């Protein structure tokens, strides 16, 4: 989006509502849903508009299955294409007073949702009121939601209860239209108070609140001394207040970092940051135009009233809540407020951003859709469906995960992936993996699941395919979360296809021809004891073979080795059970954890969760071998005869063990098993070059 394009539109104007969005008769004018501009083009109808030509082609490119309404993995969500300068340009246009009341608008860049039955997402703005605080996220959110934003004109003086009525009337109307769908409300700062108040007054409506540094902590804000200063300050000096206020509200460095590529050299990054910061700082003074003195005084009083109203009704909030809190919020004590709300609200989860400021949604590195996906709160019905509600990783998410966050880890390990062709030949890469599902990968679960990240990356790079990993249900709950919960590996598991291991989930994935990853050894294998590396802890009964035969699934047994070259276990489960306070901790967390294998006897059924004490070693190398595909199509005897099913089950288990034996033997022949040799090779050929390995 260019600033020039933004300037070409008038400030805000309405058009005739479509039947879908028309407010009921008798509804106040401000409750009607209209289309606005500045960053939104008007194409004749309210709502999502009628787009054609190139835009439609781009949208069709990300739709993988029109019947399912799914998104293609690695699609371009557009995140990072808009900067904070676009926000200021849009806010400058929208702040021009048109004399109208508060209203809704639909950002054109959000487009049509690329998933069927996409839920509605309403954005409630912060103190500025212009409604463009979500501008960096419009396009990415627009793939999964119908996005609408509330605009409160700069000279509007609607009290808090009046704004509350506007939002409340809109959600009631939308709920009447789609009673089985949730309504998402993203409340930024002051908008967080509005969102909580609406939820408290409407517990019967299925609301999902995403609160960004909510202003419920306004009584403790550092702005309290500014109120008398503003009232006494001459109007010609008012320009200095928003300029100073901007540094309290936001981190200019993080704002300037938006859209700067992460793969630049340090000198290039510094130069880009310098240029971006130089162009951004003069814009901060424009807050004086966006929020004049009288408007700022009103907004601060509105904040005070809103915080008081909302805090008195927190006990009535039944909605699902995701709270995003900044650790360096100089405007509000957001971290401490997260602690309070986490304890107060009945169904609240927190994601903590320790290095960000108050205007979290305008700062670098925060992708709201990614946060929503990682926290497992995206759904299109009353309950989250882990199969159909899953949104695959975007190109930006993939780059952040594997070209930034995990880059050094994968570079140090230089994983070797091998697969087996139907004729039995072992080749490097994934050529032996079928291009179409359903496919079931069955293998060894390494210590702490350290084999997963390279596996996910390789399938996305080479096959452009998400492998849906069947995982312990505890990874998807909130029992062990805290009020300072940062985005974690659990969030990554969810984003890259993980879902709870249940027969019905596996059934539905096979039904949809998906790639499915199953570890029969489960937690017992991933949290094994000393000396148990590469040992399988599979239960006796064939848990998955019959279902695979029913759907004609291609089963691929695979082995993995390398954990013993990377980690050394210091204290295992047996050691920790002998330490009194640690034993009590293990017992307490396992009381709250869903038991998935209580019916299985012996060590295979001991699925106790604990955290082993580990010491890193000088990195060796990871090796994967995907065995010869086993076609289950036509194996009707497996469905009828338990003995036949057991034979296939034992065959698969033997193939996994053989694959690991092969890799342990062949890695001794790898001239590049040592990190020193790999480093020399990459120094000569570049870090992107594939490091050679043994001959299969």
UniProtKB/TrEMBL annotation:
One of its GO terms (cellular component) is membrane. One of its GO terms (biological process) is triglyceride biosynthetic process. Residues 173-363 form the Serine aminopeptidase S33 domain. InterPro entries: AB_hydrolase_fold, DAGAT, Hydrolase_4. Keywords: Acyltransferase, Transferase. GO terms for molecular function: diacylglycerol O-acyltransferase activity. Gene3D superfamilies: alpha/beta hydrolase. It holds the Pfam family Hydrolase_4. PANTHER family: MONOACYLGLYCEROL_DIACYLGLYCEROL O-ACYLTRANSFERASE, TRANSMEMBRANE PROTEIN 68. Belongs to the diacylglycerol acyltransferase family. This is Serine aminopeptidase S33 domain-containing protein. It comes from Brachypodium distachyon. The gene is LOC100822939.
